[in-house]
Specification:
Elements (H helix, E strand, L loop, with lengths): L1 H42 L7 E3 L5 E5 L5 E3 L3 H6 L1 H4 L10 H4 L1 H4 L17 E4 L3 H11 L4 E7 L5 E7 L24 H4 L9 H11 L8 E3 L2 E4 L2 E4 L5 E3 L1 H7 L2 H11 L1 H10 L7 E2 L2 E2 L12 H8 L9 H13 L9 E5 L5 E3 L12 H17 L10 E9 L8 E9 L5 E7 L5 H18 L1
Parallel strand pairs: 1-4
Antiparallel strand pairs: 1-2, 2-3, 4-13, 5-6, 5-17, 7-10, 8-9, 11-12, 13-14, 15-16, 16-17
Length: 451
């Protein structure tokens, strides 16, 4: 009798395990079936059959009647949107053909990937292919990234990364080929750079909220300043400066001295609060996290960190979101790349809700930074380059060592209810932030606002 009872108990346990396993499988099948179907394409070396379109309905990639994946007719546009659309080989991990293959496949619970409603779905990206093309032309073969997004809705209108290639005519890329160094990397989402003087906005935000005399304190720049055991240099002697004037001329001595007053812990706290050490999920794609290694930093090292050097590393997407948060007075929309998905019969299949960041900056502090950044453009960056728009910006020239030309940064936003856009430009080894990166930003923003 006891043997029968034991066997019955074992059978009940096995039956319960089978039931539980079946329930788990059913749940996973419903929630993850589309991703499983997408993996089948990946393992077979194929891309899903759906179409990829930009926000205006321009077809960027589709599968023709011969079953071949084809792309937009203009080769320059194909290169410009490579890191948003992807390639047939799946080498561009952030491209829609790989990252959003589950949405493209046309999979559904009843018929799988072979839908009687037609082959594949239409995936509309938030990007504007024309803006990417303008960015491609403005970058003129230089490496880096350009991005613009709507900080109210999160829609990324421009996401450009270079180097790139034509997915319709993929080159043979060998290890060590400098022209294609990091070509599979989406520099906007996946890279980090020293921020240079763009980080002075974070240092200033910390000073506004922690130093009661920040708005009356002045600093006399002689071209160099002793900060602890370090000597922090400027491009020239700026003379006596207020905080507003120091930001406009990007005085290293002023902000290094300010950073040393604040201390490494406060500086790191504000970098973290700005979201610059965090990761964002952009339609499921994780951005690279920035870093600020300040443990045990001396006054001199803290000074260099305060001007965007030392161990500072930031992700361009994170910087762009911070610009959006300044514009909105606290928080901004999290970027997204998917506008909508439709079946081949134009039936909407999914909707995408905007998400917001936490508070990245205090509202009153953001107002002050906004006024200072607007002054930068008016007094330093040549406002004439930005017709019919009110631009607030900060440039950066980030030293990279090794005798290499500095990286050029230009980041900011447009003021006005009709232009809720934040932007970031990085030109690797581009030199002057205002000249190299600022000129690229001017071209893209002019296409966005005036064309």
């Amino acid at each position: 009798m006891r043997k029968i009872e034991k066997r019955a108990a074992v059978c009940l346990i096995l039956a319960a395990a089978l039931l539980l396993g079946s329930l788990v499988f059913a749940f996973r099948f419903v929630t993850s079936g589309s991703r499983w179907a997408a993996y089948l394409y990946t393992f077979s070396g194929q891309t899903p059959v759906g179409r990829v379109l930009d926000r205006d309905g321009d077809i960027l990639s589709y599968v023709n009647s011969d079953g071949k994946r084809v792309y937009y007719e203009n080769p320059a546009v194909r290169r410009a949107v490579l890191h948003a659309v992807g390639d047939a080989q799946g080498k561009i991990g952030t491209g829609a053909l790989t990252a959003f293959s589950d949405r493209l496949s046309g999979y559904n619970l009843f018929t799988g990937a072979y839908s009687p409603l037609g082959e594949g779905n239409d995936l509309y990206l938030t990007i504007d292919a024309h803006l990417n093309y303008v960015a491609h032309q403005a970058m003129a073969g230089r490496k880096g990234t350009v991005a613009v997004y709507n900080y109210e809705t999160g829609e990324v209108l421009c996401m450009y990364s270079a180097p790139n290639y034509d997915p319709a005519d993929s080159p043979e890329i060998r290890d060590g080929d400098e022209a294609y160094e990091g070509v599979y990397l989406n520099r906007f989402l996946q890279s980090t750079y020293p921020p240079g003087s763009v980080f002075k906005l974070v240092t200033l935000a910390a000073a506004i909220e922690n130093l009661p005399d920040w708005d009356t304190w002045t600093f006399t720049c002689t071209g160099s300043a002793p900060v602890g055991e370090e000597t922090v240099t400027c491009q020239k002697a700026h003379g006596e400066l207020t905080a507003k004037e120091a930001l406009a001329v990007s005085c290293n001595g002023f902000f290094a001295t300010l950073a040393a007053k604040l201390g490494p812990e406060t500086l790191e706290k504000y970098a973290r609060q700005a979201g610059l050490t965090s990761q964002y999920s952009v339609s499921g794609l994780s951005t690279a996290a920035g870093s600020f290694g300040m443990e045990g930093a001396t006054d001199g090292q803290t000074g260099w960190a305060g001007v965007g050097q030392y161990n500072d590393l930031v992700n361009p997407c994170g910087v762009m979101v911070y610009m959006g948060a300044i514009a909105r007075g606290g928080a901004a929309a999290v970027p997204q790349l998917i506008l909508k998905t439709e079946s081949s019969l134009d039936f909407p299949l999914s909707f995408y809700l905007k998400k917001r960041t936490g508070t990245l900056i205090r509202e009153d502090t953001a107002r002050i930074l906004t006024e200072f950044m607007a002054n930068n453009v008016q007094t330093t960056y040549d406002a004439g380059r930005f017709p019919n728009m009110e631009v607030c910006a900060k440039s950066g020239t980030a030293e990279v060592g090794g005798g290499k030309t500095p990286h050029a940064w230009f980041a900011g936003f447009l003021r006005g209810e009709d232009t809720p856009y934040a932007f970031v430009v990085v030109v690797e080894n581009g030199g002057s932030g205002s000249e190299a990166a600022g000129s690229v930003a001017a071209s893209v923003l002019n296409a966005l606002v005036n064309e």
